[in-house]
Amino acid sequence: MSALLRFAPMSCRAWGDESVRRDSESGAYRYLIGVFIQDEYSSDIAERLRAVKPSALPKLHWRDLRSAERERSIEAIARLRSMQLVLVTTPLEHVAEERARRKCLAALFRELDGYDGLDRLILESRTAQQDKRDRALFLRYRQRTKKGGFDIEHRSGQDAPELWVPDQVLGAYGDHLRGRDDHWSALRDQTIVTEIEI
How far apart, in whole angstroms, are the C-alpha atoms of residue 144 and residue 102? Predict the structure, then answer.
């Protein structure tokens, strides 16, 4: 049983986002997928994050925030004591980004599968064609494993503040990869990090 399933709540949804960050040690890029596990104790996360979102921005996006704004968003997430999951690839080098995404998503499906309390994985929408490829990957996974369980869908980051959580978690972890732990330390104990071999 995975670490995620040991600590997952009785009923939840998962919200996922992606990022590409450079590793300070190797200098190579890594592909990351972050997931926020939402349960009954974090049902008000949308309201909390809207309260700390700068009014000039359509959503919380790590790279658009100043240091003090990042601090407020991380504090709001850390106070929930919710569970996050980060999947990070080994250095990409000559691996295409979309292949890295497929590997991460396949690992994520396996990580989340088999847990009856999870009814849906919501990923941030990219283009219609890219979302279609994610869906096709998921359906192939379902056909191969012959399991039921959660479904997936895509939503706009502007319309779903829950998707801001993995964005902020990945931002903090990405800074950690570059040797800056200003914000990651607040989330470390409630985030499971899994490295995916590419």
Answer: 15
Predicted TM-score (pTM) of the model is 0.91
Closest CA to 61 of 130, 124, 132, 154: 124
Amino acid type, 19: S
Number of H helices, E strands in the chain: 6, 6
How far are the Cα atoms of 18, 105, 146, 147 from residue 163, in angstroms, in the given order? 10, 16, 29, 26
Domains and CATH numbers, the chain: 11-196 (3.30.420.10)
Run of H or E residues at 78 = helix 67-80
Q: pLDDT value at position 99?
A: 92
> Is residue 195 a contact partner of residue 89, using CB atoms and an 8 Å limit?
yes
Average pLDDT value over all residues in the chain? 90
* Residue 29 near residue 129, CB atoms below 8 Å: no
Dist. CA 69–CA 195, nearest whole Å: 29
CA distance 133 to 154: 12
Give the separation between CA 168 and CA 174, rounded to whole angstroms: 10
7 sits in the region (left: phi over 0; alpha: psi -120 to 50; else beta) called: alpha
Q: Are 115 and 138 in contact (CB under 8 A)?
A: no
User: What is residue 161's predicted lDDT score, i.e. its pLDDT?
Assistant: 96
